[in-house]
Each structure stands twice: as C-alpha cells, then as structure tokens.
Amino acid sequence: MSSFRVKGGLKLKGEIIPQGAKNEALQILCAVLLTSEKVTIHKIPNIRDVNKLIELLSDMGVKVEKVGPESYTFQADNVDLKYLDTDDFLKKASSLRGSVMILGPLLARFGHGRLSKPGGDKIGRRRMDTHFYGFQKLGAEFHYDSKKEIYHIDGKKLRGAYMLLDEASVTGTANIVMAAVMADGKTTIYNAACEPYLQQLCDMLNRMGAKITGIGSNLLTIEGVKKLKGTEHSMLPDMIEIGSFIGMAAMTQSEITIKDAQINRLGIIPDTFKRMGIKMEFRGDDIYIPSQKHYEIETFIDGSILTVADAIWPGFTPDLLSIVLVTATQAKGTVLVHQKMFESRLFFVDKLIDMGAQIILCDPHRATVIGLDRKYPLKGIRMTSPDIRAGVSLLIAAMSAEGTSIIDNIEQIDRGYQYIDQRLNALGADIVRID
Ligand SMILES: CC(=O)N[C@H]1[C@@H](OP(=O)(O)OP(=O)(O)OC[C@H]2O[C@@H](n3ccc(=O)[nH]c3=O)[C@H](O)[C@@H]2O)O[C@H](CO)[C@@H](O)[C@@H]1O
Ligand SMILES: C=C(OP(=O)(O)O)C(=O)O
User: Fold this and answer.
1) Which CATH number applies to 22-234?
2) 120 Cβ below 6 A of ligand 2
3) Per-residue CA distances from 20 to 42, 132, 197, 292 (Å)
4) Which residues form the Enolpyruvate transferase domain (predicted)?
5) Fold of 3-19+237-434
6) Is the CB of 319 under 6 A from ligand 2?
7) How far apart, in whole angstroms, are the C-alpha atoms of residue 169 and residue 166?
8) 161-214, pLDDT tens digit by residue?
C-alpha cells in the first residue's frame, strides 16, 4: 500500500492539461470487442483501472499496440473465448467496475459472456439489475451462480426490443447499447443514461457503422446492423478531473489555468462551482481560476441554505460531490451536500472533521458543511483514502492544511488520476509518494 506525504499551505500556479476521461475510456475500450477490425484510440489516460482493462483485453487475445504517448490500436480478430472460463479472467475482471461493460460486446459478437462481481469503489450498493434486464429484453438468458458469484449471459440470436430502464444506469446503458447494435431489428431504450461518456460511445459506434439516434437524450433508438468496422476515437477531457482542479484551486488559493477543457461538454459543473463562490473565467476553451482568498457560497433566492445534490445527467455528477464538500470547508457560508445515489460515499467526512472542518453528517446521504472562511486552517493529519473521489478530496484538504499530512491507500487515487503527484508538483505542490 502506497502513501502520499503532503506538505500543506502551498499555493499553486500555472497550467494543467486534463487527462482523457476515465469513465469514457472504460466504455470505449470495451467497444473494441465489437469488431474484428482495427480501432485506434487517443487520449487514453495512464491510470490503474484503464491499464487493468487494457491488460484484460490483451489476455483475451485482443492485439494491443501502443502507437503514441496516449494512443493505442486494438484489434479483436482472434478473441480467446476459452479464456473467459478461467479463474485468471474472473479474478482480473472483478478488480474493476469498468470490466462489466465487456458483457454487452461479448454477447453481441459471440453470443455469450460471463463475469464475476465487478469491483470499483465500495460506496454503497452497486446493483447490476438494469444491465441484465436489458440483455434479457434483447432475448438473452441470464443465470447467476450465487455460490461462485458469476454472472452468465447467453443469447445467440438477439432481437431488438423496446425497454424502459428502471434506472438510468451509466454502465448499464453502455452495456445494453453495445449488445443491441448488432441485434436483429430496432431497439428503443427509454430512461437511458446520457452522460458525455455515453454520447461519445454512441458517436464512436455510429462511426463504426451502427445506427443510433437520440444521442444525448434519454431515448435512444438503435437499428441493428450486421457488422461493425474499425474506427478512430479520441477521449474527452476528464470532467471529474476538471472539477477536482477547480475545487483544488479554490481551496489552495492557487491561480491555475485548466487547458482545453471542452467547456461546452461540462454541463452544469462550472455553474455548480460558481455557486460555491468560486470565480473562474472562460478563455476560449481554457478555464482560468484566479487566486481567491475568500469565496462565498450562494444561498437560494429566498435566502435559504444552498443544497448541492447529485442527479443523473444533465444533473450534477455524484463523482464531484466529495470535491464540492471539501471545497465548502474553507468557503464563507453553509451548504447541504446531498449524495442521493450512493449511501456510503460521505463517510470520509470524519477525516475532514479530524482536520478541523465543521461538518455535520446528518445521515449517510447528507452532510451540512459550515465554511470557515479561512479563519482557522485545516490541520495536517494521517488518513486513509476510502474511495477515488474521497481520496482526491483528502488530497485537496491536505494541500490546503497547516502542516504535513499522510494519505494512505493512494491506489484508490491512482485508479483515476494520472501522475497526479508529478503534475501538481510541477505547479508548486509538495507531494511525495512513499511506497
Ligand atoms: C465506471 C463508471 O462509469 N462508473 C460511474 C458509473 O457507475 P455505474 O454505472 O456503476 O453507476 P449507475 O449509473 O449504475 O448507478 C449509480 C448509483 O446510482 C443509483 N441510481 C442510478 C440511476 C438512477 O436513476 N437512480 C439511482 O438511484 C444506482 O442504484 C447506483 O447506486 O456511474 C456512476 C453514476 O454517475 C458514477 O458514480 C461512476 O463513477
Ligand atoms: C465511482 C467511481 O468509479 P468506479 O465506478 O470505477 O468505482 C468514480 O469514478 O468516481
């Protein structure tokens, strides 16, 4: 288990380029299984989850070639289906959440798939019913081996169908779309998730020859085609990383420019941070954040306390609520952070409370943060990163704190933020990786 030693109280200055989006990359990489032709992908982030998925694809027989610093080609012309029955496959696949999205492509192309319970953050119940409901609607048979915790899905002949999803699951929608692109006839998915990750996936599939309409909405229509061909794809900048940098800049009174942020794809993210009182300027496609000694949380129009809650896209992503929460600790004002989707994602606030933050955890889903307006700095402590976004929130807290902090279990952070220590140190941070 590795740790970060973080010296607090330093102001950062300079430019930072966001990595390619983690959650998009996980979908896009799974989609290479849908064709025997070569697929070239750019802006692949060098992070643990993505590297694990690339390794898994390679173990499955996909030809993987690194063709540039952030570019790879993939060719799934000789997939080893027997490998899917091995313990090695099941173990590797279950070490990350994104691997669940190999099921849809495997079902579409080879008529069957299997997977053990996928990993990812332990942030509450993470059910997969939506995925299997969708596959079943397309005519596949689902079987769960509860002893071995293995999901089996079989369906040689998928047929397009109408389905109304019980929830707009992100990975569930991606999985069902990938299963449906080569089904016989028309599939309609209502209450589909429509995050930029999914928009990017659908655009890529269309370039491969799929016929998907309704992209960006919660009603997707897919006309099945016989075959898909190769393509080239480039990932969007990671909107969660961008939000993390905005919060980090405010907390540490840093002056930073986030380069090439593709602002028109960030949805409500910039406005949500603006409501926290954080000033930013859009300079072309860059986001400039000036050094801010004070920032004041808005109230609602009637003067009542602001609530920031997650919602499915185009609402505010749950993956940035921990960042909003930590940012509020040094703001002026009060905010209620309401994490509706996950029930165990706010427990990390006990570490912030130990550092001196004023937070009341009302229940597992809601925390009230009373901003200190920098009257008292947070104090550096030793802490463990429970999940990826809490981990970065603790890193932000440590960077703004008085004294030195140690953050353990930074593998969680490495899951989703590439070379984070080196990139922040280049702007003036003091973060040392201790192995
Ligand atoms: C690899 C990947 O892409 N992971 C992301 C993906 O996970 P993932 O696809 O696993 O998350 P889902 O969208 O399936 O659901 C997330 C949680 O929200 C709940 N839920 C979902 C939809 C809904 O309408 N109502 C509802 O309550 C689910 O029950 C679940 O507890 O989407 C999540 C929600 O944006 C993000 O936090 C994860 O970072
Ligand atoms: C929860 C997240 O990731 P995963 O779904 O991979 O656990 C996240 O990216 O914030």
Assistant:
1) 3.65.10.10
2) yes
3) 8, 29, 11, 28
4) 7-422
5) UDP-n-acetylglucosamine1-carboxyvinyl-transferase; Chain (3.65.10)
6) yes
7) 9
8) 999 999 999 999 999 999 999 999 999 999 999 999 999 999 999 999 999 999
Question: pTM score, two decimals?
Answer: 0.98
Catalytic residue, from 59, 80, 85, 121: name it: 121
Cα angle 390, 266, 41; round to 5: 90
Beta carbons of 10 and 429 less than 8 angstroms apart: yes
Cβ 389 under 6 angstroms from ligand 2: yes
pLDDT digits (tens, 9 = 90+) for 95-112: 888 899 999 999 999 999
Query: How far apart are the CA of 145 and the centre of ligand 2, in A?
Result: 25
What does the domain layout of the chain look like in residue ranges?
3-19+237-434, 22-234
**Contact assessment for residue 49 and residue 415, using Cβ atoms and an 8 Å cutoff:** yes
Task: Tell me the per-residue pLDDT of 304-362, one tens digit each, with 9 for 90 and over.
Answer: 999 999 999 999 999 999 999 999 999 999 999 999 999 999 999 999 999 999 999 99
Please give the annotated binding residues for phosphoenolpyruvate, written as ranges. 22-23
In our burial notation (b when 16+ CB lie closer than 10 A, e otherwise), range 76-115 reads beebeeeebeeeebbebbbbbbbbbbbbbbbbbbeebbbb
- The number of the ligand 1 atom at minimal distance from the alpha carbon of 174 is 9
3-19+237-434 matches 22-234 in fold: yes
Ligand 2 contact via 388 beta carbon (within 6 Å): yes
In one-letter notation, the amino acid at residue 248 is: M
CA of 300 to the centre of ligand 2 (A): 30
Question: What separation in Å is there between the alpha carbon of 68 and the centre of ligand 1?
Answer: 32
Q: Active site includes 414? A: no
Strand partners of residue 65:
73
- Maximal CA-CA distance, the chain: 65
**Mean pLDDT, residues 258-277 taken together:** 98
What's the pLDDT tens digit per position in 204-258? 999 999 999 999 999 999 999 999 999 999 999 999 999 999 999 999 999 999 9
Residue found under tokens 């129009």: 301
Q: Which residues pair with 159 in a beta bridge?
A: 184
Give the type of residue at 383.
M
* Nearest Cα residue to atom 10 of ligand 1: 171
